[in-house]
Every structure is written in structure tokens, then in C-alpha cells.
Amino acid sequence: MNALDYFHARLEATVSPMDYLRLAQAEPEKYFLIDVRNGPEHVRSVTIKDAAIIPQQELHERLHEIPKDKEIIVYCWDVWCNTAVKVAAFLLERGYKVKELSGGIAAWKEMNFPVTDSSLDVEPSDTCGC
Predict the structure, then answer these.
(1) DSSP of 95-129, one letter per residue?
(2) Maximal C-alpha separation, the chain
(3) What ranges in the chain are assigned the alpha helix state H?
(4) Does the residue 128 lie in any domain?
(5) pLDDT tens, 49-94?
(6) Other beta carbons less than 10 A from residue 77's beta carbon
(7) What CATH number does residue 63 fall under?
(8) Total domains, the chain
(9) Which end of the chain has the smaller Cβ count within 10 Å, N or C?
(10) Residue 103 CA to chain centroid, in angstroms?
(11) Is residue 64 part of a domain?
(12) Model pLDDT for residues 98-122, shown as the tens digit of each residue
């Protein structure tokens, strides 16, 4: 593969946070965003607003939750995380149309785009440990 083919393939397989936000605002019914990060829930409490939360380790059991008629956008932690790439390959092998959100949740938060923080939903009395 030469450099030009590589960059065309990369553009076909990924979407930037800015482009995804613009596309999803224009045609929200066309996309299905999935947070595929693994790890404890308290570490994953901040998610992209309106993302479905289906950790990679639960994907096999929850595949029925992912619509085949939408473009699937998957994301994980950051550029160093390959969980979203693994999920994208898994879904592509099963006939889904999939792209990875470049930079994951880290890039999204860096841009100050909308997030949901589930840790804010916890009642103070639930966290006292007494």
C-alpha cells in the first residue's frame, strides 16, 4: 500500500470529532455512536452525550442492540487505545457500516463538545461508604 492509498483508507475508516458533530447534527437518525471502552464504570463515567454504552467485553451479548441500518461510530479512550479498532473490525465482519471516532473521548473532551457525566447522578448519601 502506498501513502496515498493509506490516507484514503484512513479517511474512509475514521471520522474526526468535528466532522462527527456536524454530521450528527445534520442527520441524527443516520448515525449510532457507541462508547466501547472497557474498565470500571467510575472510570468511564464521562461519555459523549447520547452515546450508547456497550463495552467491548459485552459486545457479543449485546450485538442485537446495534442497528444494521445506521452508520456505526465507535470510540474508546484516546489515540493510543485500539479497543475501538477491534470493535470496528468485529462489526465490519458482521456487515455493519463502521467508522472510528478519531482521538476517542479525550479528543472530544479537548474540544469541549457535549458530554454526560453519570457520576453526577449519584446521590451524596450513596457515596459516603457508611
Answers:
(1) T-EEEEETTHHHHHHHTT--EEEGGGGS-GGGGS-
(2) 61
(3) 3-13, 17-26, 59-62, 83-93, 104-110
(4) no
(5) 999 999 999 999 999 999 999 999 999 999 889 999 999 999 999 9
(6) 20
(7) 3.40.250.10
(8) 1
(9) C
(10) 10
(11) yes
(12) 999 999 999 999 999 999 998 875 4
Q: How many helices (H) and strands (E) does the chain have?
A: 5, 7
Q: Identify whether 6 is part of a domain.
A: no
Cell, residue 36 = 466501547
Query: Measuring CA to CA, how many Å separate 37 from each of 3, 33, 70, 92, 116?
Result: 30, 12, 20, 18, 15
Locate 16 and state its grid cell: 474526526
Domain that holds residue 84: 13-120
- d(CA 53, CA 103) in angstroms, rounded, equals 17
Beta strands at 46-48 and 115-117: parallel, antiparallel or unpaired: antiparallel
Spatial CA neighbour of 75 closest among 108, 42, 50, 30: 108
pLDDT given for residue 128 in this prediction: 41
Question: Is 108 among the domain residues?
Answer: yes
Report which residue type is found at 23.
L
Classify residue 57 by its DSSP letter. G
CB contact set of 87 (below 8 Å; sequence gap of 6+): 34, 36, 56, 59, 74, 98
Instruction: Determine the Cα–Cα distance for residues 82 and 61; give it in Å rounded to an integer.
Output: 20
